[in-house]
Amino acid sequence: MEVLILTLLWASSIALADKDERLPNKCEVCKFLTVELQTSLDKSGRSKEVLELGEVLDTGKRRRKIKYNTSETRLTEALDNICEGILQYSIHAERPGSLRYAKGTSQTMATLKNLVNKGVKVDLGLPYELWDEPSVEVADMKKQCETMLEQYEDVVEDWYFHNQGERLERFLCEMHVLKDSEMECLAEVWKGDMGVKGSEEKAASDGESEEKTHDAGEL
Known about the structure:
By secondary structure, the chain is mainly α. The protein is elongated and about 65 Å long. The protein has helices at 2-20, 26-44, 72-79, 107-117, 136-151, 153-162, 168-177, 199-205, and strands spanning 50-53, 64-67, 89-91, 101-103. α2 crosses α3, α2 crosses α5 and α2 (26-44) packs antiparallel against α7 (168-177). Strands 1-2 form a two-stranded antiparallel ribbon. Strands 3-4 form a two-stranded antiparallel ribbon.
């Protein structure tokens, strides 16, 4: 009976997700591209490394030195496979708009995994090891990210070398990629769990800890 009830609940959640399923739009792609790039740059932003460029000539001319955190090398390393980071996102069907894309396990999937760990049989029609594979939506966002980055690489370089005083999201998405009518997702900010009310209290009472989830505002 427990497995039957679980299956019915899962079928209902899948039906709701399918109803809302859609490929990511340009706003969402740009939003998460900037999240990933800014995150990558932040990881190396405090480096005090100094690079030496050029060859030492017989004339004794010294090699040119530049700071790593303002160098082209840092930007190139940050951009390397940047869109691969998109594949770490999952679909959180309980959230609206662009907030449906977030790193970590969705509320529904975390609940199912907890049940599996307790020995409850859960049949989703696919092997357990495939539960965390990127969805069609996430895979499409990764592909769009690569296309967008290639198309606007000069804009990213312009921001990095000359306009870092401007937020990357604003400079790239608002000023270059999107039309005024396409910017709605940029105003969507995560403000906490938007799942079923009381779910957190129930998990706490059961002594369970779900995997923490992240969104653009937290990265």
